[in-house]
Amino acid sequence: MIAEALNAIVELINVYISPSSTDDPLLLTNISKYNDGNEFSVALNDKLILSIVNIEEDRVAKSPENYVKENSLVRYKNPAIPINLTVLFAATHTDYEQAILLIEKVIRFFQIKHVFTPGNTPALQTVNEVNNINIEKIIFDWVNLNLEQVNQLWTSLGGHYMPSVVMKMRMFSIDEYQVQKEELPVKEIFESFGRI
What residue numbers bound the domain in which 102 lies? Predict the structure, then answer.
C-alpha cells in the first residue's frame, strides 16, 4: 500500500514538472544508494529522488475501537494503524541551478495541492481499485529542519547535502482486515444479587 501510494504521487509530480517528456525527472528510490559509485548510482545523476527517511505510528489518530459491526454480528479485530511517513525529495543534478529549480517545482506542486483523496486524485482511485485497498486521504505537510537536524539526516544517509525538502505524509492507515473473533452483540444486561 505504501509503495502504491508513493508511486501515484510520483506520477503526479512527474506530470507537473515535465508534462510532455517521457523521461521521468522524479524517481522513488533510496537516496543513500546514490553514493555507492556503481551503475545504479550513475543512473540517478540529474534526477529528483523521493526516499522514505522515517515511518512512525500516529498515536493521536489511532482508534481504540477493536470491533466492526456487520448486520447482527460484531467482529473483533485489531484497530487500524495510522502511520506517518517522513519523505525526502532530493535533487542530484550536477547543475546546481537546475537542482534548485527542481526542488522549487516540488514545493510549488505541494503549494497547489497537498491533500490527496480518491475524489480529487484519479490516480489514487485507480490504485485503490487495482490493488483492492482503501486509501482515503493523504496529506503532505512541510517539515522544518534546523541546520543540526539537516546535518544528522544527511550524515545518516551517508552523503553530502543536496538541495532537498522534507515532507511529512500523514493520515495513512494500514488496516489488514483479519477477524480475531465473531460474536452476537450484547442486547440485554441482567443484574443478579445474592445474599452474603
Answer: 2-179
